[in-house]
Amino acid sequence: MTLRAYWISGGRWGYTACDRTNLVDPTGGCGANRVETLPFWAGWGAVGVGAALAVLVVCALRFPGRYSVAGSWAAAALLLVLAFPLHLLFEIPAALAGRPSDWRDLGARLALATGGLLFAGLANACAPQRGAREAGYQPVPRWTRRWAYGAVALPVVGWAVPHGLWVLGVPFGISQRQLDDIHRNLSTWTGVAITLVPPLAGLLVLGLIQRWGQQFPRWVPGLRERQVPRPLALIPAGVVALTLLTYGVLSVAVLATQVLTGDTHWSEVREGWAVTATLLVFLCWGVTLGVTTTGYAIATRPRQERTTNTGLSL
């Protein structure tokens, strides 16, 4: 809130206008110093949300209970969605590879993601105890494994393969003009980073169906064979699944709107079918990851909760 108040008073350090202008200067905030009137949600709106979150923290600490837990989870979901981790997944490797990036935007997204994780931790701390988890590895349902393998395969087949071909200069599913634009805007190292990071990150999904996702491996100092806290696996997986779904749905909706309004022609969609297919890959990736996360949550439920559910089913 302090930084927002500083922007409202006229300062512009740390402020970015890259999402509101057509200026091409990501390292300089896209002309942020020339913005005279601060948008509402970047100023007073953000201050109001910050004040509401501060009140929520105080209420959760003083009056822990069902409503505090629900409010904390809602705040965590809001902050993590606003952080849009998928953007970080691409932009950070690209920035490290030397591509000009908007450090103000990346810093703000990292702060939002950190805040979301902290609120998730607060919700978990305020939640009533539901019994201890069973020691050792609890096998996940068989259907969880099938969905997990799909979540691992999708970023490889639907993202790494076409992007790898484009980096190599092969116009797979796109026109030569689009391929030339890719090579003009991306360096080789940036293209390699963008190609490899998503499938490598997708391998973490295997932790939701393997022993090392429930128990730390023996080679981890100080944590060997201890139980992995459920939030440590469920929160990141759930957030990424939600982000992928959101991005996929919004992207498909934007494309459909452009086609219906005539801004994009069907001939362009057919010519660049691989790009359109990438949007569907994100959507399906989010679904498969979400189902896998659900299977992990079912397998790692506390013992008391399992007993209660079994009694109700009888």
Automatic annotation (TrEMBL):
Keywords per UniProt: Membrane, Transmembrane, Transmembrane helix
Top-level lineage group: Bacteria
For this protein, the parts annotated as crossing the membrane are 41-61, 73-90, 110-127, 147-168, 188-209, 232-260, 272-299
Q: What is this protein called?
A: Uncharacterized protein
